[in-house]
Amino acid sequence: MSSLPVCQTLLLEPHNGVLHITLDRPQSRNAMSLQMVTELRAVLAAVRDDRTVRALVIGGAGGHFCSGGDIKDMANARAQGATAYRELNRAFGALLEETQHAPQVVITVLQGAVLGGGFGLACVSDIAIAEHQAQFGLPETSLGLLPAQIAPFVVQRIGLTQARRLALTAARFDGTQARRMGLVHFVEHDPQALAERLDEVLAHVLCCAPGANAATKQLLLASAAQPAGELLDQAAEWFSEAVTGAEGVEGTMAFVQKRKPGWAL
Fold first, then answer.
1. Which of 128, 246, 264, 265 could potentially form a cystine with 206 if both were Cys, beta carbons 3.0 to 4.6 Å apart?
2. What values do phi and psi take at 7, rounded to 5?
3. Per-residue b or e along 21-40, where b marks 16 or more CB atoms closer than 10 Å to that residue's CB
4. pLDDT classification of 128: cutoffs 50, 70, 90
């Protein structure tokens, strides 16, 4: 595994090809400070090209995922003027973009507060698992603010109709409602069930070839933006590279020989 940066706001635990990332500011319900944003971006950069890291699991310490942006950072930015606000806000948007496009499978484990920036992180995960009592919401407009960097990812995740309702009312909702609107994939009723579901999901992820997963994720994300013809041309090229590459040869041989491929754990 790649050398990981030293972090003060994150706990990093690599295990069997999975990097567990815990947002670790429990005193503020893991509010997203600029330092945390910077550290998360550094971790993503460190593992971006490392195919031995198959999945990233993001959770929060102290029974909460993330309560949103850090108000102290906003207060500090106020003293520096509009440019500081803009840079602070845009740094978080860059984190969401980089998480969205991480080659690894990104899994969020959602408990307690999943608000604002935490909501945004959930929206850019590939697989989201929530506790039924988790509290989701976009509180920005109730504070006289707007979900500036989060909004495009919310729309991509749950559609414009739901995003408008949630953003323009600052309404709170639980894990069960989050699953109904397509924000999360699984809802569990206690921490043990949450852990068991995570293990089950990881077992499925680790059956898939890391390079193929990375290319497939890139293809799926591109499908939302690119014209179909252009995208399908690109997809054919990627398929050709995959089927003639080491993973494709190993996967097809394993199928013919009725055995697990080398990457399957």
1. 265
2. -125, 145
3. bbbbbeebbbbbbbebbebb
4. very high
Mean pLDDT over 13-31 rounds to 96
pLDDT of residue 195: 97
pLDDT per position as a tens digit, 67-102: 998 877 777 777 777 777 788 888 899 999 999 999
Instruction: Please identify which residue in the block is written with the tokens 């919310």.
Output: 154
pLDDT digits (tens, 9 = 90+) for 207-223: 999 999 999 999 999 98
pLDDT for the residue numbered 229: 74
Which of these, 227, 213, 253, lies nearest to 17 by C-alpha position?
Answer: 213
3-state secondary structure of 108: strand
The yes or no reply on domain 10-205 and CATH 3.90.226.10 is: yes
DSSP code, position 1: -
Q: What is the pLDDT of residue 258?
A: 93
Asked if residue 34 lies in contact with residue 42, where contact means CB atoms within 8 angstroms, the answer is: no
- Residue 66 near residue 113 (C-beta atoms within 8 A): yes
Predicted TM-score (pTM) of the model is 0.91
DSSP labels for 8-54?
SSEEEEEETTEEEEEE--GGGTT-B-HHHHHHHHHHHHHHTT-TT--
Place of tokens 């996967």: 251
In angstroms, what is the C-alpha Rg of the chain?
19
